[in-house]
Amino acid sequence: MALVLNEEQTMLKDAAAGFLAEKATVAHQRALRDEGDERGYSESVWKEMAEMGWAGIAIAEAYGGLGYGYVGLGLVLEQTGANLSASPLQSSVLIGASVIAELGSEKQKEEWLPAIASGNKLVTLALQEGNHHAPLATAAAAARDGDGWVLNGEKVLVLDASSADAFIVIARTSGSSGDEQGLSAFLLEAGSAGATVTARSMVDSRNAGLLALKDARVGAEQLLGEEGGAWRGLSRALDIAAIGLAAEMLGLSTEAFTRTVDYLKERKQFGRVIGSFQGLQHRAAELFAELELCRSIVLQALQGIDNDDDNLPLLASAAKAKLCQITQQVTNEAIQMHGGIGMTDEHEIGFFIKRARVAQHTLGDYNYHLDRFAQLGGF
Amino acid sequence: MSDLEQFRQETRAWLEENCPDSMRTPITGFEDLYNGGRNPEVSHPDQVVWCERMAEKGWTVPHWPREYGGGGLEKAEVKVLGEEMSRIGARRALDSFGISMLGPALLEFGNEEQKLEHLPKIARGEIRWCQGYSEPNAGSDLASLATRAEDKGDHYLINGQKVWTSYADKADWIFCLVRTDNTGTKHEGISFVLFDMDQPGVTVKPIKLISGSSPFCETFFDNARAEKKNLVGEDGKGWSIAKYLLTHEREMISGFGAGPKKTVGQMALETIGADASGRLANSVLRQNIAQYQLDTMAFGATMARVGDEVKSGKGLGPASSIFKYYGTELNKRRNELNLAVLGEYALGWEGDEYNGGTVSRDWLRSKGNSIEGGTSEVQLNIVAKRVLGLPDA
C-alpha cells in the first residue's frame, strides 16, 4: 500500500479538521476544565461526532460501523490531537471496540459493537494497576464461583471511567505475574455490585478514574474470549490502541510545533524577531525533521493494522516510542521558545504539554515501547 | 504476451548470454566499481567486456534517449532490466559522475551539440568526469567561489584552485564552476564550463584524510583553457545548474546510510551477550542501539512516503529537504555504534586481523558525510528559511 492518503481519506481528514476547529477547540477544553465538568468532554459534541459516523469509522459494516479501517480512525484522532478535543474516541472507539472485536464472541460483538458505533454505549478498558503500564503483571483476581467468577482488584487510569457504560476488566484466572497464560477479559456493566468508580483529577483535566472491584460477580456470558486466553487478542488490541494514540500525538505535536514557529516569527527581542536567531532556527529545523519521521511511521503503522501486517507489534512499539520521544521534545521546546508567556495558564500552549504527557503514558510510554521494540528486534 | 513480458524474456536471454560469470559476483569494494575513462582502472578484465556489451545496448544509461547513447527505455522497462539484472546478480556495468551528475545536468541545461558531443562518451565509459565546485574559501558558502575565467573570444582562460575534487587524479574532463563576472551579487557571474584535464595548465594533488587515503584532490588551474562551446547554459547563469546538481549529490550522499543485513542490535548480541531475560547485557548501549534502529526505520518510512507522494503526483514535498541532514547524521550514529559494539576490533588500522581497518576507516570517513555536499548546519538553515519561513538574521 502506498504511503499516501487516498481521496476518501483526505476528505475525512479535512472534514474532521473543520468540525473540530469549530466545535472542540482548546478554548472549549479550557471551559470544560474551568466548569469542573466531570465527564471532561461535551456530550452534545460527542453526539454530533457519532452522528457523522466517527464512532464507527474502524468498526466493520457488519457491526454497524463505516468500515473505513484504522487509517480513517487515525486521521480523525490526529485532528483531535491538533485541537485537543476530548471525547470517548480513544477510550471506547479506539480501545474498547478493538478489544471486543479481537476477543468477543459473535453474540457479544453483535450486542456491543453497533452500540459503540452509534455512540450509544461507552465501553472502556480497565487494565493498569500500578504506576506503569505492565499488562503481564496484572494481579487483579478472577476466582471461580459456580458458572461465573468473582473479581477483586484495583484498576487505575481507566479512561472516561465516570461516563462509561461498561468496563472490560483484565484479571487473572490463573498463572502469576509475568505469565501470558491465565489472563482473562470480562465485560462488567457500570453500576454492578462490587464495582466502584472514583473520578481522579489528572493533569490533562480529562476523565480518568479508579475502578475498585470488591467481590464483583460476573457470569459466564460476560467472559470475552477464552478463560485464561485473553493475551493474544488483548495484545493485538493494545498494539492498535498504541498506534491510535501515536496518531493523536502526531496531531498534537505538529500543532504545538506550528504554533511555536508562528510565535518565533512574531515575538521581538533585541530589536528583531527571535525566529531570526540561528540558535532557535536550528532547533526548530531539527524538530521539523523529526516530525516528518513521525508522520511516516504513524501512517505506516496505521496501514499495518488495516493490512494485517505480521510485524504489527514492532510497528506499534516503533510508532508509540517515536511519538512519545518527539512529543515530549516538541512540547518542552514549545514552552521554552514561548518563554514567560508559555508558563501562564492564560496561554494555550500549556494545554498541549499537559495532554501530551497523559497520552505518552497511556498504554506504555517511551521507555516501555523502546524496550519492547528492542526485544522484538531480537536484542 | 504483453510487450513488457516479451521485453523481460528477451532481456533475460540477452543477459544470460552476455553477462560474464565474473560480473555476477557481489562487489567487495570500490575497486569493483568500473568507472571507465581513457585509462580505466580494472580489478577484472571482464569489467571492460561487460561495459562494452551493455553500452552497445545503451543499457549503461537505460533511461537516456537513444541518440545520446542511452537505451531509450520506458520507466517500466528500466525497472524490468533492473529486476532481471538483480535476478542473476549482475553488477552495474558502469558507475561514474558522468552518469549520476553531469549527464542529468546536460540533459536539462545543455544544448544539442553539447549533448551529442558528451553524453555518448559518458554512456560508453570513454570519458571519466570529475566535479570542480568547492574552493579553499568557498565551502558551505559555495557561491563565493573565486576561480576566474577570462573571456578570450573563442575560449576562456582559467586561473584558480579547486579542492575536494573527487577522483580528479583519475578523471579525463572536469565540469567546473568558474567566475566570469565580478560585478553583480555573488550568485551572479558564476558560469558552468567543461574542459579537458589533460593540458599543461591543470595540476592535481591528492589529499590524505584522517581515514587514510581518499578520492579527494586539490586541483590547480594556471592558464587552463576551456572552449566557449563548452559553456553550459548562459554565461553568468551557472548557479542554477550548480544548485540542480547539488540536489542530485545530496540525494546520493543521503543514500550512504544503507547498512548490512544484520542489525546493530544483533551484532551487539554476538559481541556483548545477553542477560537472563535475553536482553543485550549493557542496557545503556541497548537503548542507544534501539533508538538508532527506530530512527532508521522511521527515516526509511519517510523516504518511502516521499517516493509514494511523488508517484501519486503530489510532487516533492518539504519532507525531502531533511534527507541529506538526517541520512548523514544517521550514518554517523551508525558508525559510532559500530565502534561501541566492536570495541578493540573497531580500532584496528591495518592488518588482516582487523580486515585492513575497514571499521575505523569507515567511521572516520563518515565524519565527512555531514560536511560534503552542504553541511548539516547549512541543511538546517535551508529548512528553517525555505520550509519554516523563518527570517534572515
Return the CATH class of the largest domain in chain A.
Mainly Alpha
CATH level-4 homologous superfamily of the largest domain in chain B = Butyryl-CoA Dehydrogenase, subunit A, domain 3
CATH architecture of the largest domain in chain B: Up-down Bundle
Oligomeric category: heterodimer
Predict the CATH topology of the largest domain in chain B: Butyryl-CoA Dehydrogenase, subunit A, domain 3
Main sheet record of chain B: 4 strands, mixed
Main sheet: strand order of chain B:
1-4-5-8
Specify the number of helices of chain B. Answer: 11
Which chains make the largest contact?
A: A-B, 40 and 48 residues
How many strands, which pairing sense, and closed or not: the largest β-sheet of chain A? 4 strands, mixed
Find the count of extended strands of chain A (DSSP E, 2+ residues).
Answer: 10
Q: What is the number of strand segments of chain B?
A: 8
The name of the CATH superfamily of the largest domain in chain A reads: Butyryl-CoA Dehydrogenase, subunit A, domain 3
Q: What's the mean pLDDT score of chain A?
A: 97
Overall, the morphology of chain A is globular
CATH class of the largest domain in chain B: Mainly Alpha
**Count of distinct structural domains of chain A:** 3
